[in-house]
Write a structure and sequence with these properties.
207 residues, alpha+beta, 32% helix, 17% strand
Amino acid sequence: MQLNDLNDTNISALSYIAQFRHIVHSSSNLFVIHAPQSSSCDWSLGLHSAIAVLYALQLITSNPVAHTLFTIARHFADHGVLFRTLVEYRSQPDEHTVSAWFSPSKYADKNYLFMFDDFQSAMFSAKESLTSPQGLAAVLRGGILSQITQEFLSIDAVLDGPSIEASKYYSGFVSPSEYEGMSYWDDEPTEEEVSIICGTYIVYNGT
């Protein structure tokens, strides 16, 4: 019963404990959590699903003293959960999320036998791509992409928040804020960078 947040008799349900006023559904696919803040960060936590929000709230209520946005983000990074480190700036006339579609540079025949040298080459390309601010943000994307990225990067470096690319040059992920004339920003790897980090090849299959 204590795990049932919809049960009216559960006094420990999230609906009684969690401070929902700190959560904003800023757009159709972005939830922003503004608290509990930490001296280690000056950003808000962005999540793309209600399930992830409930997960974050469960973490907070499990130990309200220890958990902050920083510790939750680190937990998400460790477990491969998609999240964002959002900062709020004035909206720009031409703002849009960066996009560079995958243009393959590596090809292989359908009968090609991949060897260890191919793996090493892919890892070298991934490491090179991760030197960019957008590449650093790959840790935040979750899943296998986050796991590969953490082979080369420190989580702490990513949890410093958006780079100068987003904060000064307004290049990266952008989403409308709940306040008029404001937008949330974060770094964003392009599809091209994601494909490089994952070691993507185009394989000819004869069709």
